[in-house]
Amino acid sequence: MIRLFPSSDATKDHRDDAMKFDEFKAQIEDYFPNFTSVVGKGYYKDGQLQKMTIDIPVQFYGKGEIVGFTQYVAGTSRSFIFTKSKQKRHCSSSVFF
Questions:
Q1: Which of 20, 29, 86, 97 has its CA 20 to 30 A from that of 59?
Q2: In 3-state terms, what secondary structure has residue 30?
Q3: pTM higher than 0.85, yes or no?
């Protein structure tokens, strides 16, 4: 099952994950308020989160901004890695131009 974050369905069905995602989203918005959104897609199996991908579309004006923001997102995401199951969690980031 796939759930989009943020959404009312995600909040209803997976409240803890939705709250963690909202906290993560708020920290990203505090760091760089000029982008459009933070959108997550959670993949669930037997009610347990297996994988989450997060898209953050942004527009920057220089390489330094991109590097700084990417490092901030990577560091922040590690503190919000969803740990309900005993599976190993993986955190990675990609920048597309």
A1: 20
A2: helix
A3: no
